[in-house]
Specification:
Elements (H helix, E strand, L loop, with lengths): L35 H21 L6 H8 L3 H8 L2 H12 L12 H17 L4 H8 L4 H28 L8 H18 L8 H14 L14
C-alpha cells in the first residue's frame, strides 16, 4: 500500500502506495492557499528532498542541499520546514493527499496480488525513494510519525478490499481487515527490505494467495462481541 510513497512506483516524486499503508484518517498537513508562489516553492522543495534522498540517502540529506537543488534560499526552507525531519515529514504527509484507491477486480486474491505488485514495484524502483523514506523514518522522529500517518492512511483505504470480499461471500463476517492486510503485504517488505532477496515475480501472488486462503479458513475472524452481534 504505497502511495508512491506508498503505492505504485515512486517516479513522480511522491512516495508509493507502500506503503499503500491504513486505519484512522491521517493528520492533515498544514495547508496554505493553493496555487501561486507558495505552492510552487513547496513542490520544488519536496521534489528536491526526494531527489537528494534517492541520490545520497538520509546521511547525505541537508537543508542546504535541498535548497540548492530546489533553487530556493535556505532561509525559506528553514523558516517553513525547520530541519531535515520537517522536510521528510512533509514529503510523507503530501503522499496522503493523493487520490489512490486499492484495486477492485472482483476477487480478493486478485486484489491482494495487484496490491502486492504495486508494493514490489515501488520498493524496487530506482532511485530507491520508498526504501530510503522507510529507512529515514528510523533516524528521524518527525519522519517516523509521518510514516505512521501514511501507513494508517493506506491501510484505511485498503480495508474496503476486505469489506467487498465479505459482501461477495468470499470471507466470513467479522473478518478483521487490518490483520488480513498486514498478513498479505508483510512478506513483500520482509523479503525485499529485510532479507534483500532478488525480485521474484511470483512473490506478490504467493503472498496474496496465502493470506486469502487463511482468511477464508477464518484465521482473521473476530469472535462475536459479548453482547452477541451474531
Amino acid at each position: 500500500m504505497t502511495s508512491e510513497a506508498s503505492g505504485p512506483g515512486a517516479e513522480d516524486t511522491r512516495p508509493a502506495p507502500s506503503l499503500k499503508q491504513t486505519s484512522a484518517p491521517p493528520r492533515e498537513p498544514t495547508r496554505r492557499r493553493p496555487g501561486g508562489r507558495t505552492a510552487r516553492i513547496r513542490t520544488q522543495v519536496l521534489d528536491a528532498v526526494l531527489a537528494e534522498l534517492g541520490e545520497h540517502g538520509y546521511d547525505g540529506l541537508s537543508v542546504e542541499g535541498v535548497a540548492a537543488r530546489a533553487d530556493v534560499h535556505r532561509t525559506t526552507v528553514y523558516r517553513r520546514w525547520g530541519d531535515v525531519g520537517g522536510l521528510l515529514a512533509d514529503v510523507l504527509d503530501a503522499a496522503s493527499a493523493d487520490d489512490w484507491q486499492p484495486p477492485d477486480t472482483g476477487s480478493l486474491e486478485s486484489d491482494l496480488t495487484l496490491l502486492n505488485q504495486e508494493i514490489q514495484d515501488a520498493l524496487l524502483a530506482e532511485p530507491p525513494i520508498v526504501a530510503a523514506l522507510i529507512a529515514a523514518s528510523f533516524r528521524s522522529e518527525k519522519a517516523a510519525e509521518a510514516q505512521r500517518r501514511l501507513w494508517e492512511d493506506r491501510y484505511a483505504r485498503c480495508e474496503i478490499t476486505v469489506g467487498r470480499a465479505v459482501m461477495r461471500g468470499e470471507l466470513p463476517p467479522r473478518t478483521d481487515a487490518r490483520r488480513l492486510l498486514i498478513a498479505a503485504t508483510a512478506p513483500m517488505y520482509h523479503q525485499l527490505l529485510l532479507l534483500h532477496t532478488p525480485a521474484d515475480p511470483r512473490l506478490p501472488g504467493r503472498a496474496a494467495r496465502t493470506a486469502a486462503l487463511a482468511a477464508v479458513a477464518g484465521a482473521f475472524t473476530e469472535p462475536p462481541s459479548a453482547g452477541g452481534d451474531g
